[in-house]
Amino acid sequence: MGLPDWEAFLENHIEGFFNRKFSSELEPVEVRKALEHELMRKRKKSKRGDFVPNVYEVLMGIEDYQRLSSRRFIEDLSVFMQKLLITSDVYMDGIFSIRLIKSEDITKSICQVTSYFEDAEKSKKKDVEDGTLVLDKKSFNVPLNLPPVRLFASLAVESGDDEGARLELGEQKIYIGRRSENEFLLTDPKASRLHAYIEYVRHRHVLYDAQSTNGTFVNGERIESTVLNQDDIIQIGNTILRYEVPE
């Protein structure tokens, strides 16, 4: 083990020791850190890119579960994970699921995260035990006090006729151009009426050129389609946009 690895090892274990020693309850930030660690630990390389598991189970003590197991909290974890996929440049197949599970075997203020790859059919058939709160991206019913869609990225015009315009992005399809019915309406005369569109594919935003007259460019290169990454610069006509994932 090299010096940087040894320092990281000590930092993680010392931090964990003090968290357990002086914290009386599990904090949301610790759950997010545990999910991020598990996602990166299970990252697998393939010809289509790096893939990560789509099912995450978070085991916690009974008191922590009773305090944290709300739909609001699990929605916040979902948005955190969807942002993490983009900033880590990884992909996910199947239905994304987070499961909070209470366990008598877990000490208060500690959580354990496990993950696995699961296809959609298996997810539908899986029985859910009592004491488990589940979010499945395609089947979760959002209560009235939550927004109807999860927004975790944005597209902002940095220069051009529509400078300052911004659109929040989630899982919905977005059309871009001069048509009045587009979700992102541009007034740039060099933009086509339907110039480009964004789809949510494998839990990532993909930008497609819609056979525009003047083309769509990402980081200076003309594209037909491309997966968007943090701080990508998009040019449509004379309009410059930036793709962002806010913290």
Automatic annotation (TrEMBL):
The UniProt record lists the FHA domain at: 174-223
- Cross-referenced InterPro entries: Cell_Proc_Reg/RNA_Proc, FHA_dom, FhaA_N, FhaA_N_sf, SMAD_FHA_dom_sf
- The residues forming the signal peptide are none
Q: Please give the PROSITE patterns that the UniProt record associates with this protein.
A: FHA_DOMAIN
A Pfam family annotated for this chain is FhaA_N
Protein name in the entry: FHA domain-containing protein
> From which source organism is this entry?
Schwartzia succinivorans DSM 10502
